[in-house]
Amino acid sequence: MEEPIYIIGHKNPDPDAVCSAIAYAAFKEARGEAGYVPARCGNSNARIDAILNHFSVPLPIFLGDVTPCVKDIMHPPHRITVDATCASALKLIDEHDVRALPVVNQDNTLEGLLSVYHLGEYFIPKPNAPTQLQHVKTNIDAIVRSLNADIKHVLDQDRIEDLYVRIAAMSLETFGQFTESQNIPHEQTVIVVGNRINIQRKAIERGVRLLVVTGGLGIEEDIIALAKEKGVSLIESPYDTTGTAWTIRSAAYVHDLMDKDFLTCTPEEKLIHAHRKVTSNYASTIPVIDEHKQLVGVFTHGDLLNPKKKKIILVDHNEMTQAINGAASVDILEIVDHHRLGNPPTLQPIFFRNEPVGSTCTIVADMFKREGIRPRPEIAGMMMGGLIADTLCLRGPTTTDKDRELLPWLSEIAGTSSEQLADIIFSSGSIILSSPAEKVIRTDCKVYTEGDIRFGVSQVEELGFDNFWKHADALKQALKQYQEEESLRFAALLVTDINRQNSLLVIMGDAEIISQISYAEVERDTIFELPGIVSRKKQVIPYFTTLIKPLTA
Question: Which of the four, 19, 66, 167, 382, has the lowest number of CB atoms within 10 Å?
Answer without folding.
Answer: 167
